[in-house]
What does this fold into?
Amino acid sequence: MSVSNKTKAIVFTAILLALLLAALIGLTFVLRLSSTGTIKTVGCAAYFDAALTQRATSINWGTVTPGSEKNQTLYILNTSNVPVNLTLGTENWAPNATSHYIALFWNYNKTALGVNKAFPVTLMFDTFSNATSSGITNFTFDIIIVANG
It folds into this structure.
């Protein structure tokens, strides 16, 4: 029993469509990264609100697309007994290779922060467009804010 050319074309088209759909689903999964950053502070405290009532201990950046940027404003309170300058760092990237595809920076302008004073800073979370080739879909890292007096 032979299969007609029409039947072969229908089967071929169905397989091709299934492969394309699978590729699109897979691509969408790879292009979206889910991330959380734990906030650690030394000599200061971080808050989500200007009234300093909502302590910031982590940031859920949500789903990000490679090549995009997300921002989060924090209010930093000087908890030491001298004026301070702030530094920003990251550590404990999991998986470790994630740090090659992500950048975290802020708009802090090196202004001294007085004792028991707070001011807003905006953290900018930037995903590089080459993150799609990493295979990373979920990651975590620590955000370190240090007050130096």
About this structure: Residues 18-32 have pLDDT under 50 and may be disordered. The chain has two domains: 1-31, 33-148. Residues 33-148 form a domain with the Ctag/Cox11 (Pfam 04442) fold (CATH 2.60.370).
